[in-house]
Automatic annotation (TrEMBL):
Residues 143-248 form the HTH LytTR-type domain. Keywords: Phosphoprotein. May play the central regulatory role in sporulation. It may be an element of the effector pathway responsible for the activation of sporulation genes in response to nutritional stress. Spo0A may act in concert with spo0H (a sigma factor) to control the expression of some genes that are critical to the sporulation process. SUPFAM superfamilies: CheY-like (SSF52172). It comes from Desulfotruncus arcticus DSM 17038. This is Stage 0 sporulation protein A homolog. SMART domains: LytTR, REC. The keyword Phosphoprotein applies.
Length: 251
């Protein structure tokens, strides 16, 4: 079931979107928000799979809302539905799945949702024959992190990936998830070397733990790992950089 939240300040448009989406099999509208602040609270509470976002929201505009959603639930699918076409670049900076310019046909919404449903059903592996593990590790052997009033010493080889979740940085290992207040950018600066890679604005991945990279629609690719069922995202603009990082000379 695809769960949806609608963030739109026009009550009439909210009604139209809700009615249209509710008629699509396999789609459930969890709620509506008329401003950006309320929408963000509802995302944190309901964790919808898809969020329809109007650019011109009061309180917190659509682009700001989208960026904050990415920091909380980076795999949420974002769809901009707006009367303005001059924010397309900003929309795709936050890896929006689609950008609908009003007035749009209702069939356009249905087609977008069908594309998402198909993507959810079929995440086909992409060729990875050129992808190989790094030749040597140059990262520090241990990462020291502060959690509340204690220090935790982590072997970097045990880290699978690091992400942002509910305004915290979360370090995922095969046996634990550790939440800290340190920013993702700060942690990244302490992991200089060739073992860890910033695959997305909300993810740092351990290249030696990657098991498979699969298509994830227009948003990029989904990364699966050894040691956990959790996944990460590889942004489209990072895919070529990753390939250059991992490919052997002459291959």
């Amino acid at each position: 079931m695809l769960t949806v939240l609608i963030a739109e300040d026009d009550p009439a448009m909210r009604h139209v979107l809700n009615k249209t989406l509710s008629q699509i099999p396999g789609v459930e509208v969890l709620g509506e928000a008329g401003d950006g602040i309320t929408a963000l609270k509802m995302v944190e509470k309901l964790n919808p799979r898809v969020v329809f976002i109007d650019i011109d929201l009061p309180g917190k505009n659509g682009v700001e809302l989208a960026r904050e959603i990415c920091d909380i639930y980076s795999q949420t699918i974002l769809i901009f539905a707006t009367a303005y076409d001059d924010h397309i670049h900003e929309a795709f900076e936050v890896y929006a799945f689609d950008y609908l310019v009003k007035p749009f046909k209702l069939d356009r919404i249905k087609k977008t949702m069908e594309r998402i449903k198909q993507q959810e059903r079929q995440r086909s592996p992409v060729p990875t024959n050129h992808f190989v593990p790094p030749v040597a590790e140059t990262n520090p052997a241990r990462l020291v992190i502060r959690q509340n009033e204690k220090l935790i010493f982590l072997d970097t080889q045990d880290i699978i990936f690091i992400t942002r979740e509910k305004r915290k940085t979360v370090i995922v290992t095969s046996i634990d998830k550790i939440s800290i207040t340190e920013s993702l950018n700060s942690v990244e600066t302490r992991l200089t070397g060739n073992t860890f890679f910033r695959s997305h604005r909300a993810y740092i991945v351990n290249l030696n733990m990657i098991r498979e990279i699969c298509s994830w629609g227009k948003n990029g690719y989904e990364i699966t790992f050894s040691g956990t069922r959790q996944t990460a995202i590889l942004a489209l603009n990072k895919a070529r950089e990753l390939e250059k990082t991992l490919v052997l000379p002459g291959s």
